[in-house]
Design a protein that fits this description.
Blueprint lengths: L1 H16 L9 H31 L3 H29 L3 H5 L1 H9 L3 H21 L10 H32 L2 H15 L1
Helix pairs in contact: 1-2, 2-7, 6-7
């Protein structure tokens, strides 16, 4: 248990250390920061995993059953809390699907920029595909759940990398005026 506690504290410090002290100004900078933070979360997960497996392997069947029951109770209460916000945000999807057209119209893109926007749209579609993969069926034990977290973080990192690469290319193709409009457009969409 001491090893697990130490690993958890170390992982928390690793994650906390990556909290930005200043806001990133541009969309590519924000995605780069996100990508770095996800990488640190993967490292933190890797730090915790061996200690968790060691701890879990030392439990007897009764202890495992109590731990599983506790986790089931937490998961049920967490799922109940998540259902309401998910339902409330469902109507926002149609607007999210129009973003390429909105950007093209507002920024008055040339052919090269339109092609870069199309590549960004394609990367976004691939990223959504990566993130839509359902979690593994066997997540009944803490080590299995941590493995699922690792898989989810790796998929998230791949998705952010795909979008970040395409966004960087699109952003580089914009004029300074278009970049300012693009950033303002993004801020309006998130408020």
């Amino acid at each position: 248990l001491e090893d697990l506690t130490t690993a958890l504290i170390t992982a928390a410090h690793m994650i906390r250390a990556t909290c930005p002290t200043q806001a990133a100004l541009s969309a590519p900078e924000r995605l780069t920061l996100m990508q770095q933070r996800i990488g640190v979360m993967i490292q933190a997960q890797a730090k915790v995993q061996p200690a968790l497996i060691k701890f879990y392997d030392l439990l007897d069947e009764e202890q495992e059953a109590r731990l599983k029951a506790l986790a089931d109770d937490r998961r049920k209460s967490a799922n109940g809390e998540r259902e309401a916000p998910a339902q409330a945000s469902a109507p926002a999807q149609p607007a999210a699907l129009r973003w390429p057209e909105d950007i093209e119209t507002r920024l008055r893109l040339n052919d090269a920029q339109r092609a870069a926007l199309k590549a960004l749209q394609d990367a976004n579609g691939m990223a959504m595909g990566l993130l839509s993969t359902p979690p593994p069926d066997d997540t009944t034990t803490p080590p299995a759940r941590l493995d699922a977290v690792e898989g989810r973080l790796n998929a998230l990192q791949q998705a952010v990398y795909l979008v970040n690469t395409a966004l960087g290319e699109f952003y580089a193709a914009l004029s300074d005026e278009q970049k300012a409009q693009f950033e303002a457009f993004g801020q309006k969409r998130t408020t």
